[in-house]
Design goal:
The complex is a heterodimer of chains A (332) and B (287). Chain A has 332 residues and is mainly alpha-helical. Helices cover 75% and strands 0% of the residues of chain A. Chain A has 2 domains: 175 residues, no CATH class; 154 residues, no CATH class. Chain A is globular. Chain A starts with a helix and ends in a 5-residue tail after the last helix. Chain B folds into 2 domains: 210 residues, Rossmann fold, CATH 3.40.50; 71 residues, no CATH class. In chain B, 35% of the residues lie in helices and 31% in strands. Chain B is elongated, with a radius of gyration of 21 Å. Classes of the chains: A mainly alpha (332), B alpha/beta (287). At the A-B interface, α1 and α4 of A face α2 and α3 of B.
Chain lengths: 332, 287
């Protein structure tokens, strides 16, 4: 029997070139930024951005790959071929995990370059601010070793979080006739899962590491829901409530999808869900959330209220309509 | 052999395929005929392993087809409107299929591409429907699959390509493969197929060879004044002269018409469409 995994890899070979370019763009940007002036601020910012960027890039690229190769009638062609769902899922998982590992390793090696350079005095003064925050110790070997451990901890946690997020995305893609459902899952898990894991990381692990590094974890006393990307502050309680409702609803849908994954690998089911009009409700919720997000984003800016509200309405309508279009039921 | 046992498949809670039990033997060409919405495509996709049966089974050699790599490597399916990626050439598609199927033959593919006049350098996604059909058929027939399933294979193809296609499937069936194809063109299917399957509202209402089918249907031209519409399907109506179709051989249907006092003008040659309408009427009356 032919090697199906190799055949799928061959199918994606052009895409994979761009795939790895984008996955390695983060570490490259990180490395290049290090040489610029005011590098310390950039490095801190880029570190935080990269942690989210890595697996969001992975998800976005895998979504694009699915859209190119497996949407609509192409998915039917794929199902007609001699490829089982186990092979399809294995291929998706392996390519995703490999990309995540490569990207994270590149990030670690880049950071290690600067740590080693600082330690050896080659690039003095370029140490990251959070290194100094970890301890008031002198810049000795133990300090740098501690820094490496902290860095590795962040990378491993980022990679694990990315792997969990990625598995959820694969579940969404596998149970969906329309690729749009995978996009919806990706969107919802980036809102819910990411901050939740950050919350766990801070809350559960701080007791273990705080004594070692004295790092003031900034996410104390915040619930996992409130640290979402669509967070609204206390001045907008309705928005906060809607965020919580939406995220909870999507979590329930994800759990339901995972539980029923066996019965959902069937193109004739007409989409991820057979509940009547669920696409309308989800699209409406997405539109409403977009409205609050845009309002919140421009809240403290100098733009006139009328312009902000108009923009929010247009984007909300566009996002809601777009979400409905890509998740509408497939006709049998 | 492909078999189904009490096969059911539903959309939106409504059964599109209902309790289909059938066997499709190697070495034969089967024609699947049914009205729009009768379940033809759904049935074909269940046999191709694209859809999972809601209940019952679709099997090849007593093994379920759905999600089985080894079994599906022996089945080739061509849909009614095949789509291809715009960024893949015809040659690239051959490579793609060769990577998945042990039995794929480049020699065969090149030969079929020549016969169908397919340019191997052209981008598959930009071709017309007829050209895509030819490509899909070439890919399927290059695989040496033992079971081939085609949904409206001649739809969109030019006449010359249709002739080539019929020769190819006849040769393929003579070598021992099972071929199942659906079509709305009953005139052409009559000359192509060994056995006919009528599908009506998700159920098989007839499955057998064409000769047996046509022997049990009669076509009469009658004077319609005394015709009881419950005993026949009226296919043509010109004033007081009607052409009717009835289930039953010539003698038995003649007796029925005479007993009903209907004036018989002629007995006409039965066409496949006539048989289909007669069986549909019978199925409808039984419901």
């Amino acid at each position: 029997m032919k090697d199906k995994m190799k055949a799928l890899k061959n199918r994606d070979r052009i895409f994979n070139i761009f795939f790895y370019i984008f996955m390695l763009a983060g570490p490259v940007m990180f490395f290049i930024s290090s040489f610029k002036d005011d590098h310390e601020d950039r490095l801190v910012l880029l570190t935080d951005v990269y942690m989210q960027l890595t697996f969001l890039t992975l998800l976005a690229l895998q979504f694009i790959r699915a859209l190119c190769f497996e949407s609509g009638s192409h998915k039917e062609e794929l199902y007609a071929m001699n490829i089982s769902s186990r092979t399809r899922i294995s291929y998706d998982l392996i390519t995703g995990f490999k990309a995540l590992a490569v990207s994270s390793a590149a990030y670690f090696l880049t950071a290690l370059f600067w740590i080693f350079g600082e330690f050896k005095g080659i690039y003095s003064g370029r140490i990251w601010p959070w290194f100094r925050m970890l301890s008031d110790s002198e810049l000795n070997a133990a300090f740098f070793a501690g820094g490496c451990l902290s860095l590795m901890e962040d990378i491993i946690l980022t990679a694990l979080m990315g792997a969990v997020v990625y598995v959820l995305f694969m579940i969404g893609k596998e149970v969906s006739v329309r690729i749009g459902w995978a996009l919806l899952f990706m969107y919802s898990i980036s809102v819910f899962i990411i901050p939740f894991v950050f919350y766990i990381h801070d809350d559960l692990l701080k007791q273990l590491f705080m004594e070692s590094y004295g790092h003031p974890y900034i996410m104390e006393d915040m619930s996992p829901f409130m640290t979402g990307m669509l967070i609204s502050d206390d001045s907008n309680p309705l928005g906060s409530l809607l965020v919580i409702f939406f995220e909870t609803a999507m979590l329930m849908l994800l759990i339901h999808a995972a539980y029923h994954i066996g019965s959902r690998t069937d193109l004739a089911k007409g989409g991820a869900y057979r509940f009547k009009n669920v696409q309308i409700y989800v699209s409406a919720m997405t539109g409403v959330m977009t409205w609050f997000m845009v309002r919140g984003y421009f809240e403290d800016t100098a733009y006139p209220d009328g312009l902000i509200i108009t923009l929010a309405c247009i984007l909300a309508a566009a996002v809601g309509a777009g979400m409905y279009y890509i998740t509408r039921p497939k006709k049998g | 052999m492909i078999k189904t046992e009490s096969l059911y498949k539903a959309y939106n809670g409504e059964n599109v395929i209902k309790d289909i039990t059938a066997e499709l033997s190697p070495g034969k060409i089967y024609g699947l005929i049914g009205a729009n919405g009768s379940g033809k495509t759904t049935f074909l996709k269940c046999l191709a392993g694209i859809y999972r049966p809601d209940s019952g089974r679709a099997m090849l050699d007593d093994t379920d087809i759905f999600d089985n790599e080894e079994i599906k490597s022996r089945i080739a399916y061509v849909g009614d409107t095949p789509e291809f990626w715009k960024f893949y050439t015809v040659k690239r598609y051959a490579d793609y299929y060769a990577a998945f199927y042990d039995s794929f033959s480049y020699e065969r593919f090149n030969e079929l591409s020549e016969r169908f006049e397919t340019d191997k350098k052209s981008y598959a996604g930009n071709m017309s429907l007829g050209q895509r059909k030819k490509l899909a058929l070439s890919l399927a027939l290059s695989r040496d699959a033992s079971h081939l399933i085609f949904d409206e294979p001649e739809n969109g193809m030019d006449n010359e390509a249709r002739v080539i296609f019929r020769q190819l499937i006849r040769d393929t069936a003579d070598k021992g493969s099972m071929i199942l194809l659906s079509s709305h063109d009953l005139t052409n299917i009559e000359g192509m197929c060994d056995e006919i399957i009528f599908l009506d509202k998700g159920r098989v209402i007839y499955k057998n060879d064409i000769d047996s089918l046509l022997e049990n249907v009669s076509r009469w031209t009658v004077r319609s004044g005394k015709l009881d519409p419950g005993i026949a399907v009226i296919v043509e109506d010109a004033g007081d002269i009607s052409t009717v179709i009835m289930r039953g051989n010539k003698e038995s249907t003649r007796k029925i018409l005479e007993a009903a006092g209907t004036e018989i003008i002629t007995n006409d040659k039965v066409k496949l469409i006539d048989a289909y309408m007669a069986y549909r009427k019978e199925a409808s009356d039984e419901r």
